[in-house]
Amino acid sequence: MENALLSLDHVSQMFKRSEGRDLKVLDDVNLSLKEGEIVGLLGKSGSGKSTLLRIVAGLIAPSSGSVVHSSAGVADGQLSIAMVFQTFALFPWLTVLENVELGLEALGVPSKEMRKRALAAIDLIGLDGYESAFPRELSGGMKQRVGFARALVVNPQILLMDEPFSALDVLTAETLKTDFLDLWLEHKVPLKSVLLVTHNIEEAVVMSDRILVFASNPGRILSEIKVDLPHPRDRQSMAFRIMVDQIYTLMTSGMAKPGAAIAEKSAEGTLYDKLPRVSPNQISGLVEALAEAPYHGQADLPALDQALGLGTEDVLHLVEALRMLKFAEVSSGDVKLTAAGKMFADAGTQKRKMIFAEHLIQSIPLAAFVYRVLQSRPGHHAPRIRFMTQLEDHMAEEDAEEALSAVTSWGRYAELFAYDDNAETYSLENPSA
Asked: What is the mean pLDDT of residues 57-79?
């Protein structure tokens, strides 16, 4: 971490939960930010990336480890850090100019200087002429430009970006990425370093000088990749595609091992697995796509990502669902249908439901557990809180919600059980089955 502007040394983060059990979000993270580089943090949701940003920003203190700021070239020994958020975070009752001025006002900058710097930042980011507009008058891309202007106007040395393009449509996101990279490469912004959080592999390779690939549960650095590609980066070049494929292989390496995503072992085996929240229709659609030409049962994940037009994380969630249901195997960045997956693709509607039900019971312990509880209860009914309470003893509330929602959707499709959303109750329609 020599010559680093900022470094994280053995940082871990635990959060206290209401029932007294600690949830480990980050585990022994070491990273550095050096002058003149964009560092990408790449990982799936739940890998602690946003928590890490908050630690770097000084918004929360790590449970253990330290954040060290270099004093080189910094007047008071503290780096100036600003953040761009995913959800714009603009005040709707303030104009573009007033939103941009907020950071300067907090710093006590005189009003005349504040107005001058805010107008310059608005012009720099391409919003000249919209100073008096309110957020409701702006498109998503324009709102995010205001977010960039508000961050840049305080002349930060480090810019933190928390998935800043994920809420935008593809074309708008590409334009904003290109414009920001132009400002960075032409040294038109005062930044010394950028830390970019993303779950989009191509975005990380397009923008970053180094990429830190994060594993989940808890978040930890799986690998560091140096991106030695000249700007502007050609997404169709062999070197670019090889790097994307390499990262896909890294991010799916845990999928090759059954139970890799287990949060905690228990008497029920892998009852507390995190489950991808994807619909049965999406699962069926991916199986069908893989079974047909040009894949004929096996596909390279980066190529599949491009062909489907989905985000990286969406593809990874779908592929993980196929793996967990034993409809596909994943290795070396490729996904390959199993015999069961091919049988599912060839089957009619009712046969598919039967295959899906069989694999739910055999391969998804939470589905089997819900089904078993319903079979054993008088009347074959059980309230949703029965299962949420058990899951929350071992999982974060958000993960428990997602797991139970996924199982509910999958169980309904397979006709294993019914769910009444108004009564929040599960039941068996055919208890003797």
From this structure: 74
